[in-house]
Amino acid sequence: MELYDKVAYGTLQEQILIYDSGIKYFVDVMHGHKTGFFLDHRENRKAMRPFFAKKDVLDVFCGDGGFSLTAAHSGAKSVIAQQENEEKYHLLQELRQLLQELRHIMQELRQLLQELRHFLQELRHFLQELRHFLQELRHFLQELRHFLQELRHFLQELRHFLQELRHFLQELRHFLQEL
């Protein structure tokens, strides 16, 4: 039986980007070993994560870098991935660059999250001050309403007094005219 590589439907890029347990990998499906990636080692990579943390890791004959990238993603202090196949070496370099970009993005996200927390704290403080200001404004408006009521009452009394004064002056004028 003749061996051949062929795409059954559609087109296939030289390398495709896959995600496995939160890590990006470039996989050469047509020319890589098996499917270009050792999918059957997924559970092994997951199981090794705790052992990689804060350790120096040497991955010899690392293939597509499945364990190397898992080690780096799991917080290894350092990772050395050795591969004799030059294509896979370049692929690992690309993956390393992607991982560095991901770490940079994560750092920026942490920074943005910190800034957002600071902003939310300032917003809470502003809202507390606004609430206090609105309470004082409400109190001021109540006092103003009370003052306006007293002023209205005073003006009514003043009007009444002026009417009485006018009446008194008319009577005084009338009295003076009679004298």
The largest pleated sheet is described as: 2 strands, antiparallel
> Measured on Cα atoms, how large is the radius of gyration?
42 Å
Q: Which band does the percent of strand residues land in?
A: 5-15%
- CATH superfamily of the domain at 16-108, by name, is Vaccinia Virus protein VP39
Give the CATH topology of the domain at 16-108: Rossmann fold
Q: Averaging pLDDT over every residue, what do you get? A: 87
What would you say this structure looks like, in words?
By secondary structure, the chain is mainly α. The protein is built from 3 helices and 4 strands. The chain has a domain at 16-108: Rossmann fold. The strands form 2 sheets. A two-stranded antiparallel sheet has the order 1-2. A two-stranded parallel ribbon has the order 3-4. The protein is rod-shaped.
Secondary-structure blueprint of this entry?
Blueprint (H helix, E strand, L loop, with lengths): L15 E5 L2 E5 L14 H11 L3 E5 L5 H8 L4 E5 L3 H93 L1
Parallel strand pairs: 3-4
Antiparallel strand pairs: 1-2
Helix pairs in contact: 1-2
Short overview:
This protein is mainly α and 179 residues long. The chain has 3 helices and 4 strands; from the N terminus they run ββαβαβα.
Which key features would you list for this structure?
179 residues; mainly alpha; Rossmann fold; two-stranded antiparallel ribbon; methyltransferase activity; coiled coil; SAM-dependent_MTases_sf
